[in-house]
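hey so u asked for the seq, here:
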Amino acid sequence: MIVWWNNALLPIEEVRLSPTDHGFLVGDGVFETLLARNGQTYAVTRHWQRLARSCDAMNLVPPAIELVREAFAKLLEANHLSEARLRLTLTSGAGPAGSERGLDSAQTLCITATPLNTWNSTEQLHLSPWPRLSSGALTGVKSVSYAENVRALALARSNGAGECLFANERGELCEGTGSNIFIVRNGRLETPPLSSGCLGGVTRSLVLELALRLAIPVFEHPILLTDLTEGPVAEVFLTSTTRDVHPVSRIGDQTFRTPGPITQRLRETFLEWQSQDSDP
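ran it, structure tokens below
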């Protein structure tokens, strides 16, 4: 495996991470996950823009988008991949053992390209017993501090589900550990707003735009967790970079039609759009 380490391609065996790197010590860093299909990396501009916003929140300096594009292309070639999951991780670099950053430390940049996951045709969700905060220092930031997600996903897997679903402290639907959620109710598409505490997913934003193009009524507004069981929810699906539009068949004990007609239409049209425009 060949990785992009700071500004060069290196065999993974030659990569050396400082034991004082703050990404390793305290989770002080940000990341982006992108998708490559047919040798083309998808939505680079949107991902880089979100990376820049995360960097601004964390007082980091994003790598130039030209460098990022170069690294992606060289990684795909070096690893002989045309379909891949690309992961860009940026940390604040070496620092003290505590939370304070080191003075004049160089940032650490690592980019990897690995084969894509294979998802089941539908997904099952487990409800997290822990809330997602709707307002906090890392709300809306794609930070490498993912321990909450690791714990929640492990709980979901131990309960036979493939993803864990968070509500926020107000009991409103929020997001998965690595996905955004949509429901279809009364013929309209609904999704939690960013004020719920969810991450502004790139695929989420693309699906919202696509729904408008297809004249599907769409609403970003608070959705109570109880609406999933008490309201007439006909369809549920997840979105993420690697899942695309992924139908949900079950949340806890509640089952849903999969794929529902609106989910299927969005999925098919999204994949067609993706194949025609690599940087929408």
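The radius of gyration is 19 Å. The mean pLDDT is 95.
lmk if thats what u needed
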